[in-house]
Amino acid sequence: MLNAFLIGLLATSSLVLGGIIAIRFSLSNRAIGMILGFGAGTLISAVSYELIFEAVKMSVGSGYTAYGFFAGAATFFLADKLIGNLGNKNNNKDVHSNSSSLIIPMVLAIILDGIPESIVIGLGIFEGGKVSMAMLVAVFISNLPEAIAGSKGMKEGGWSKKKILFLWLFISLFCALSTVAGFSLFSGASNEWLSFIQAFAGGAILMMLANSMIPESYEHGGKLAGVFTVLGFFVSVSIIVFENLH
Q1: Is the CB of residue 28 less than 8 Å from the CB of residue 222?
Q2: CA–CA separation, 210 vs 207, rounded Å?
Q3: What residue numbers bound the domain in which 163 lies?
Q4: What three-state secondary structure class fits 123?
């Protein structure tokens, strides 16, 4: 259980790292867009081969994978819509408070994205006794640009450096506990329900990619966003192939 917590903390530690980078350096929107693209590519690979493909193998013919996939996508869509409405209401109050008013919906979105990813890492430890490097890398890289962009907004909103880092550390610890939950709470679950859980995470992450990460990547990085998305996918698939060769 301790190993599950530490591995989950490692995966989400990029949130803290992203906060540190944003505090110490001024990255251009173009650079953030390219990092977002690379992270999106790694997650697309992880969803395809580490989540959905494995979920289908666990419950062939049961339909649990499809149910979980659409349930995860619908859950993220509805929650993200609520978060977006919260941000829009706050934006209408005061032009000068735009940066700070977006912090709450942005942080909720990161948590909503991070929990299913962390649970899946814990499930992987339970099922195979080892961590999927591809999933670990995908989660680590995808969290980095989110934290950088978020910290940039917090700085503009007048947040102190300590407050920014404390927030990311808190979220990182919270998601690490989700890894423990994935490892321990579902230890008695059947293959069908494990398939449902993995597919649920896959649907939620894919919805997040389509609605948030990929559009933001293109908005900030332009045409190069696609290049880095392809590179991220290639790196992640290469890790998966290397893992399965040993």
Answers
A1: no
A2: 5
A3: 2-245
A4: helix
